[in-house]
Design a protein that fits this description.
Elements lengths: L3 H13 L2 H11 L6 E5 L15 E6 L2 H10 L6 E5 L7 H5 L5 E5 L8 H11 L5 E7 L7 H6 L7 H10 L2 E9 L4 H10 L7 H9 L1 H7 L9 E8 L2
Length: 235
């Protein structure tokens, strides 16, 4: 059986070698991104790197080794704070001093067993009208060996995600599928071949073909490997 922590670490390294995909991800959510941002699960900073223009960026993770790498990566940025954060036990009083108006949570919520509790805590952190920028794996039927190896508890259905946001103090203002082109590859690797790590060659090709994802953004997809959601904190 694969070690989820080791698989996640190797996957983060692969993602850091995909700058075009990181840029596409942030660009999908940037229109709703405020000036004071808390990033949940920053990993090694692949997305954080694209948000250093904010007034404040609080880059967080639960893993101490990753936190050390984040501190080293952003040592020269006075507006970047690196802190430990566990969504299972959110330190609200400590985090509120940062007065964040936006929470960025990309490919993290699926790792949390109690996603309802985590979203409720994030809602309590944000001021009314504050934004939650969320990306999660979509299509429960696509769940397979890659998801298990990464420590995913679930993949999300569109309607279920909207209800979850509404039940935890948010109002969904934008929801969109993305990456329909990745479905066949994920199905083959995860459901048929039962791989536990994304093939490195396919990852490099995926990054080079990121322009196709930007073409997808011009239409409203009925399905996709990922769900992007923007929600505001209700008063």
């Amino acid at each position: 059986m694969s070690d989820p922590a080791a698989t996640v670490a190797e996957t983060l390294a692969l993602m850091d070698a995909m700058p075009r995909i990181s840029a596409w991800t942030v660009d999908r959510l940037r229109p709703w991104c405020g000036r004071r941002v808390l990033e949940v699960g920053a990993g090694i900073g692949s997305l954080s790197e694209l948000l250093v223009d904010r007034e404040l960026l609080v880059a967080t993770d639960v893993d101490e080794q990753l936190l050390a790498r984040l501190r080293q990566r952003f040592a020269g940025h006075a507006n970047v704070i690196v802190e430990h954060l566990d969504l299972a036990a959110l330190p609200l009083e400590r985090l509120r001093r940062h007065r964040v108006d936006t929470v960025l949570c990309v490919n993290v919520l699926e790792h949390v067993q109690d996603d309802r509790g985590a979203l409720g805590a994030l809602a309590a952190l944000l001021p009314p009208g504050g934004h939650l920028l969320l990306a999660v794996p979509a299509l429960p039927w696509l769940y397979g060996s890659l998801d298990r190896a990464l420590g995913h508890h679930r993949r999300y259905a569109r309607g279920a995600l909207v209800r979850l946001l509404e039940d935890t103090g948010f109002r969904a203002v934008h929801l969109a599928f993305a990456n329909v082109l990745g479905i066949p590859g994920w199905f083959l690797n995860s459901r048929v071949l039962r791989k536990t790590l994304l093939p490195r060659g396919q990852v490099r090709l995926y990054d080079q073909l990121s322009w196709l994802l930007r073409l997808e953004d011009r239409v409203r997809l009925p399905v996709g490997m990922s769900l992007f959601a923007v929600a505001t904190r209700r008063a």
